[in-house]
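User: Is it possible to get a 3D structure for a protein together with its bound compound? The compound here is nicotinamide-adenine-dinucleotide. I've pasted both below.
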Amino acid sequence: MARIGFIGLGNMGGPMAINLIKAGHDVVAFDLVEAALERVRAAGGRSAASAREAVLDANFVVSMLPAGRHVESLYLQQENNACLLDEIAPETVIIDCSTIAAETARKVAAAARERTRRMLDAPVSGGVGGAEAGTLTFMIGGDAEVVEAARPVFEAMGRNVFHAGDAGAGQVAKMCNNMLLAVLMTGTAEAIALGVANGLDPSVLSDIMKQSSGGNWALNVYNPYPGVMDGVPASRDYSGGFQVDLMIKDLTLAMEGAAASGQSTPMGALARSLYVLHKNGGALGHDDAGGLDFSSIQKLFSS
Ligand code: NAD
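Assistant: Yes, that's possible. Here is the predicted structure of the complex:
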């Protein structure tokens, strides 16, 4: 059993922390939202009054925050002439699972290294369903021996553990994956709307495409059309899941990565434009969609 400090208990971090508790670890969690702490306590974990309290005596620190600015301020912001990295013991393994720019991950990892702290960037794929089921895929940047030291923690929360390379490499893999996910989700929503507009039942069309050359992850486990699949955000008014705002953040990271490397990413650029259009009310003039699940891109194509 390890003592784990867990910071950020949102849609993803909450169920990830609960899986660590179920695996027998002693989890001390911190979030800004009291209701999130209550869920962890109800699952048998402990809550802390601050991030500094959560990391005290921890063997592992896991963070799962919205964006790079949150991760930078969590680990690097000075308080009484010390940042959180200074408060974490050198033998502790620090695992940041947030999706952030590779450059920011490298900056925080370099600050950790300067202090002889061991840190990994370990963004995830698999969505809220994967976080709840403990089947996430981890894409990890950092030293191989640190990845091995943290393997039991990853395996309590996920099914696939990939070491992508040095610090920041996990974030590069995540940026590529989520750009492809946005393209697949947008294309799937467009295809289903086309079928429905031409008289097909969306469930029948989805079954056909799943077994045909258009088959993909969105059709298999995350159908964007309301009523086709049970238990997905599309069947609960696009609540929960992976927010449009977070997908726009990830696509913006991909566009920055493309600019930095001189790479052309036309499909990713179009997907980002469509998500921004959707967030801003779309062609149909509905409300700000930033807080809805990303499969709500279906609304751009169907009234
Ligand atoms: P979320 O907004 O539901 O949760 C973020 C949590 O962090 C909130 O509970 C918030 O209160 C907390 N928080 C923010 N600043 C904090 C601070 N300084 N100290 C403590 N807690 C703080 O977001 P999410 O959906 O859980 O996503 C988290 C990360 O995982 C993001 O980087 C996202 O891109 C990535 N991600 C999300 C999904 C998904 O399906 N939701 C899938 C893969 C990756």
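The beta strands are 3-7, 26-30, 46-47, 60-63, 93-96, 118-121, 124-125, 136-141, 158-165. The CA atoms of residues 20 and 156 lie 6 Å apart.
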